[in-house]
Design brief:
single chain, mainly alpha, 34 helices, Sel1-like, Tetratricopeptide repeat protein, TPR-like_helical_dom_sf, TPR-4
Length: 609
């Protein structure tokens, strides 16, 4: 449930719409300046509604200091949207002990930061203050750790108070527990019969992709699933060991334990285990190990379609194109019809969707091979191949710098496994950063698993490394962590990080002043789009002189929307004739600009004609 600022609430019906806004603003400012507590919030709301949050924040602070809990909550939300999390927490805490809304906001903030115990405490406190949202969210946290009965009781209370979210959540948990009981009963029957296959089949629905959200929201269900698969494995199902490992692997601290289970399944003769080990090795950037496991999976009776596919992609990434084509054609799916397809980490290549999606992936990979062969820019550069013996000799005699230089050459030649070895041998922050980028951007590794390779360079002030960490977290859906890293990168001078901060501030937080500052910083790095966005923002608030140079940069960078706004800026500083010339440019470009937007977005586009 999203937080709302006090300024988002319904307008005061006592306000006369016929009153001149400028007169009303002056009256409220005078009253607030005179120290009238009731005017602090009213004036802050007016400024916030006008997008002037910088001016509003001090008045919100005065209202909060005077005991206005809604003002405290508004301040917290504004600072949270700006990525200023400690300040957001401070303002929530000023009223959380007496206001359910602030207790709710504080609990969410703590939960997002990973402090589950703190979140539970404040949800419980907020519920005692009468916040139904706190009751609901607190119950969800109880359910997450398996306190089902208490969670359901509290959800029933919230539902009785009219909380639709509580009603839906309670129903979902009850259905989940019924399913859990059904799995237990089916497994017990298989255990009684001593049938490994039946034991495994009893739990097949646990890995249904539609249940992924359930396991993410209720970690206790992960533990329940793990226990069920352990019981199935005890009956003799090697496949159950693999699925048990898939659940254990959700906890990074238990990675070795998960891998050991899959290796045990492989030792017991389950061929699909090798495929899972290959996928995991690839995700971890262990390219040679991944290839070995994929080959092992394919050597099993009947082969393994998706091991062949992954081997093909692995070879494409390393520009072993003839091998890649052989592996992709070995799937038997390129051009075939009526064959079931699959995807994802599935030990047996089980059908997870229509075949055409799987076939399409293989066809695209084969097309990519043809495109690479036809494009010299995508092939290993001959000049680096010629330099390689000299660099190898220096590496064998030298230290970290020579090792890095040799690794870099191997990297350029797409000899990724060898490059990884030499980058690791060099071990410097620069080398580790190059290793992480190579494995993530080219080698197929999972971004979050590569972050430790980026961190040493970021710690030394490498803005690009900090930005890349932010990007990885953003792609993983962790906005808070992404925002922290983008802020670090922007403070180190990274233009795209500043652009991201500005965009999210404007689009997600509705804070145009804060956004404009970040756009300006991004524009200083030479980026054209944020120069346009900063200039447009300045025109909208009447800062025409400040806007002009930024919009000229955008026009020089061929930004199609910039001419119209430059014309407005020039008109604002009294240079009407020059403004007319730019309006003519804007009018000529208008049809093309309009065509880039959908119908609804196009309605908001100013027509310069």
């Amino acid at each position: 449930m999203a937080d709302r600022t006090a300024a988002d609430q319904d307008p005061d019906p006592a306000v006369d719409p016929a009153v001149d806004p400028a007169v009303e603003a002056a009256r409220l400012r005078a009253a607030a300046a005179a120290g009238k507590p009731e005017a602090y919030r009213a004036y802050a709301e007016l400024l916030t509604g006008q997008g002037r949050l910088d001016e509003a924040l001090p008045w919100w602070a005065r209202a909060a200091d005077a005991g206005d809990a809604d003002a405290s909550r508004t301040l917290a939300i504004c600072h949270k949207d700006r990525g200023e999390f400690p300040e957001a927490e401070r303002w929530y805490r000023t009223a959380a002990d007496r206001d359910g809304g602030c207790a709710f906001g504080l609990a969410r903030l703590l939960h997002e930061a990973g402090d589950t115990a703190g979140a539970e405490t404040w949800y419980e406190h907020g519920a005692a203050l009468g916040s139904v949202e706190c009751t609901t969210n607190g119950a969800v946290l109880l359910a997450a750790r398996g306190e089902w009965d208490t969670a359901l009781e509290r959800l029933a209370e919230a539902s009785a108070q009219g909380d639709d979210i509580a009603t839906r959540t309670r129903g979902a948990i009850e259905n989940m527990l019924r399913d859990l009981e059904g799995w237990r009963e089916a497994l017990a029957r298989a255990e009684a019969e001593g049938d490994p296959e039946e034991a495994y089949e009893a739990l097949r629905d646990l890995l249904d992709p539609e249940r992924k959200a359930m396991f993410a929201r209720y970690p206790r269900m992960v533990a329940e699933a793990e226990e069920l698969y352990a019981r199935a494995a005890a009956v003799g199902s090697a496949k159950a060991l693999v699925d048990q490992a898939l659940f254990i692997a959700r906890d990074d601290s238990r990675w070795d334990e998960a891998r050991a289970l899959v290796e045990r399944a492989h030792e017991r003769g389950y061929d699909g285990a090798a495929y899972v080990l290959g996928v995991w090795a690839e995700e971890n950037g262990e390219l040679r190990t991944a290839e070995e496991w994929y080959r092992t999976a394919d050597e099993a009776d009947g082969g393994h379609i998706w091991a062949c596919f992954n081997l093909g992609v692995l070879c494409v990434r390393q520009r072993r194109l003839d091998e890649a084509e052989r592996w992709l054609r070995a799937t038997g799916l390129d051009g075939a019809e009526g064959v079931g397809g699959a995807g994802g980490v599935d030990a047996e290549g089980r059908d997870r969707g229509p075949f055409d999606e799987g076939e399409e992936r293989i066809v695209r990979a084969l097309e990519d091979i043809a495109a690479i062969r036809a494009d010299p820019e995508r092939m290993p550069p001959a000049e680096w191949e010629e330099r390689l013996p000299e660099l190898r000799a220096r590496a064998e005699e030298g230290g970290p710098d020579a090792w890095y230089a040799y690794a870099d050459a191997l990297d350029r030649l797409y000899r990724l496994p060898e490059a990884a070895e030499w980058y690791r041998r060099a071990g410097t922050p620069r080398a580790l950063l190059a290793l992480g980028r190579m494995l993530y951007e080219v080698g197929g590794a999972t971004g979050l698993r590569m972050v430790p390779y980026y961190e040493p360079a970021a710690a030394e002030g490498d803005a690009g490394a900090a930005y890349d960490i932010g990007r990885i977290h953003d792609e993983a859906g962790d906005r808070r962590t992404a925002q922290i890293w983008f802020r670090r990168a922007a403070d180190l001078g990274h233009g795209r990080a500043a652009w991201w901060l500005g965009w999210t501030s404007e689009e997600r937080g509705g804070d145009p002043q804060h956004a404009e500052r970040w756009y300006v910083r991004a524009a200083r790095s030479g980026l054209v789009p944020p120069a346009f966005l900063a200039g447009r923002s300045m025109v909208r608030r009447g800062a025409y002189g400040e806007a002009e140079p930024l919009l000229r940069v955008a026009c020089e960078g061929k930004h199609e929307e910039a001419p119209y706004w430059l014309a407005q800026a020039l008109r604002g500083v009294g240079r009407v004739e020059e403004a007319e010339r730019w309006l003519r440019v804007a009018a000529a470009a208008y049809p093309d600009v309009l065509a880039q937007y959908g119908k609804m977005a196009g309605l908001a586009m100013p027509d310069p004609r």
